[in-house]
Automatic annotation (TrEMBL):
It comes from the Bacteria. GO terms for molecular function: glucose-1-phosphate adenylyltransferase activity. CDD domains: ADP_Glucose_PP. It catalyses: alpha-D-glucose 1-phosphate + ATP + H(+) = ADP-alpha-D-glucose + diphosphate. Residues 291-362 form the Glucose-1-phosphate adenylyltransferase/Bifunctional protein GlmU-like C-terminal hexapeptide domain. Pfam families: Hexapep_GlmU, NTP_transferase. Involved in the biosynthesis of ADP-glucose, a building block required for the elongation reactions to produce glycogen. Catalyzes the reaction between ATP and alpha-D-glucose 1-phosphate (G1P) to produce pyrophosphate and ADP-Glc. Keywords: ATP-binding, Carbohydrate metabolism, Glycogen biosynthesis, Glycogen metabolism, Nucleotide-binding, Nucleotidyltransferase, Transferase. The gene is glgC. Residues 8-260 form the Nucleotidyl transferase domain. It comes from Anaerovorax odorimutans. Belongs to the bacterial/plant glucose-1-phosphate adenylyltransferase family. This is Glucose-1-phosphate adenylyltransferase.
């Protein structure tokens, strides 16, 4: 294999249990987002837009959909003859085999893959965050500072700081302190879970960590504090763009709905830093006679014969005559039958809302969630909550 300056390792094995029914059958990075995309599209597209063309995707939890979706990586221009995208699940060895035990262990189990490209730098990213970022700028900062490890950071609200890895840095960005989810944070500079390592430094640290039986084999809990304690040069790279971890139903719903706001900071229509996906195999969408669509995203393959307002329809969605959908997200293949009404709901992939039924509550703030391949909406019109 040809030597690469930088290899990206994309952690995509997370279950995302707080998303409930949406991740019952698929990993969080595979969850559909914004109609056209899946969450992993953003990290893969960032690699392409940053001219990083060798990407290892570390899968684990229910990986079938994710594996088939990534394919050869051609949709993201990652089918490079001298690099490419590689799906890297846990595997058995002569000593046995086991699941990845943590973020650091996932990289450790793939040391041979990284070594085969003999990189100088390794970029570690997550497949379940929504953001646009040019990693090459972070890599340039890493080189300029002579860092052993550079951590991408953002300022967060002080009340949220306890949810993140929090670090303290001087005016030049040199990190002096790091604490994983501290109960009493003394800084609001939060790690985004995006790292650039010198490969020789990372490899040595992973080997040391693998022998520590008390370790959680996690970057935030173990590897970063180890490097800091050894006096390695750790620097903070401040990111000022849009970044969101859609770890809950509320954040997933609200981030989707932001796409309908023309003034939203999260703009998927920008020509630069385009987001690519593997969902371009469907015919054009169809809006039928008498249908009404307002302030919505309607994706390819969808057929709309009813009314849609302030909603996101993923590809291959069907809205039949007399049906109405408002303030909702319909994932790929979802169907709303004749006369049904859907309010403030997330309808899972290939699920059906029964004819003449009501799903959700138009007056409440609660979000109704239906998982994949389900029949929902048995409450008929005229019910107390309509």
């Amino acid at each position: 294999m040809r030597k690469q300056e930088c290899v990206a390792m994309l952690l995509a094995g997370g279950q995302g249990s707080r998303l409930g029914a949406l991740t019952r059958n698929i990993a969080k990075p595979a969850v559909a987002f914004g109609g056209k995309y899946r969450i992993i599209d953003f990290s893969l597209s960032n690699c392409t837009n940053s001219n990083i063309h060798t990407v290892g995707v570390l899968t684990q939890y229910k990986p079938l959909l994710l594996n088939s979706y990534i394919g050869t990586g051609a949709a993201w221009d990652l089918d490079d003859a001298y690099g490419g995208v590689f799906v890297l699940p846990p595997y058995a060895t002569e000593a046995g085999g086991q699941w990845y035990q943590g973020t650091a262990d996932a990289i450790f189990q793939n040391v041979d893959f990284i070594d085969s490209y003999d990189p100088q730098y390794v970029l570690v990213i997550s497949g379940d965050h929504l953001y646009k970022m040019d990693y090459s700028l972070m890599l340039d900062f890493h080189k300029q500072t002579g860092a052993d490890l550079t951590i991408s950071v953002m300022e967060v609200a002080w009340e949220d700081a306890g949810r993140f890895g929090i670090l303290t840095a001087d005016r030049d960005g040199r990190i002096s302190k790091f604490a994983e989810k501290p109960s009493c944070p003394d800084s609001n500079l939060a790690s985004m879970g995006i790292y650039v390592f010198n490969w020789n430094v990372l490899k040595e640290a992973l080997i040391k960590d693998s022998f520590d039986t008390q370790s959680d084999h996690d970057f935030g809990k173990n590897v970063i504090p180890m490097l800091l304690g050894e006096g390695k040069k750790l620097y903070a790279y401040t990111f000022t763009g849009y970044w969101q971890d859609v770890g809950t139903i509320d954040s997933y719903y609200n981030t989707n709905m932001e796409l309908l706001d023309p003034d939203s900071q999260f703009n998927i229509f920008e020509e630069d830093m385009r987001i690519f996906s593997n969902s371009n195999i469907y015919p054009p969408h169809y809006i039928g006679h008498g249908a009404a669509v307002e302030n919505s995203l309607i994706c390819n393959g969808s057929r709309v014969l009813g009314d849609v307002k302030s909603s996101i329809l993923s590809f291959d969605v069907s809205i039949e005559e007399g049906a109405s959908v408002a303030d909702s997200i319909l994932l790929p293949g979802a169907s709303v039958k004749k006369g049904a009404q859907v309010f403030r709901s997330i309808v899972g992939e290939n699920s059906t809302v029964a004819a003449n039924s009501v799903l959700g509550n138009r007056k409440g703030r609660e979000i109704t969630v239906i998982g994949d391949n389900e029949l929902a909406g048995n409450r008929q019109k005229g019910g107390a909550h309509e």
